């Protein structure tokens, strides 16, 4: 399983953990990353993720995010096809980086995980998307259910 975590997922541990939803999402993301580190799944990086992370003003957060992505098994490089797909996705109402993440995930992953409700909803309405887009907590619950059944 090749997993693409968008920047919102990667940043989730830095959000206010007093909020129950954020805390649960953080634990799900940490669990997914642990499965990737153990070789159960593969974390996929992209130049789009790296570009967005470079825009992070907090140096400590930026370094943490870079370290996380260094464990990825593969990096999707931006090319004309990905950029073209991203522009089409923007036409469906996705923000520029969300469109790039979706295009990169289509190119190199089986699943794109996001905690951004608006992105999740819009991405799942795009019929030309060949990659599943899901919420990490719900997706992990499915995987663990399948594993223990």
Question: Can you lay out the helices and strands and say which pair or pack?
Answer:
Blueprint: E1 2-5, H1 7-11, H2 20-37, E2 42-46, H3 47-54, H4 59-70, E3 74-76, H5 80-91, H6 96-108, E4 111-113, H7 117-123, E5 132-134, H8 136-148
Parallel strand pairs: 1-2, 1-4, 2-3, 4-5
Helix pairs in contact: 5-6
Largest sheet: 5 strands, parallel
Task: Supply the CATH architecture.
Answer: 3-Layer(aba) Sandwich
Which stretches of 5+ consecutive residues score pLDDT under 50?
A: none
- The count of DSSP E runs of length 2 or more, i.e. the number of strands, is 5
Tally of individual helices: 8
Taking Cα atoms only, what radius of gyration do you get, to the nearest Å? 15 Å
Q: How are strands sequenced across the largest beta sheet?
A: 3-2-1-4-5
CATH class: Alpha Beta
Assess the beta-strand content as a share of residues: 5-15%
Mean pLDDT: 94
Percentage of residues in helical conformation = 55-70%
**CATH homologous superfamily, by name?**
5'-nuclease
Give the overall shape. globular
The N- to C-terminal Cα distance equals 18 Å
Give the number of domains: 1
Q: Output the CATH topology.
A: Rossmann fold
Structural class: alpha/beta
Secondary-structure element order, as H and E? EHHEHHEHHEHEH
Give your account of this protein's structure.
- The chain has helices at residues 7-11, 20-37, 47-54, 59-70, 80-91, 96-108, 117-123, 136-148, and strands at residues 2-5, 42-46, 74-76, 111-113, 132-134.
- The protein has one domain (2-148): Rossmann fold.
- α7 (117-123) links the parallel β4 and β5 (132-134).
- The protein has a five-stranded parallel sheet with strand order 3-2-1-4-5.
- The protein has eight helices and five strands, in the order βααβααβααβαβα.
- The protein is 59% helix and 12% strand.
- With 149 residues, it is α/β, with parallel strands linked by helices.
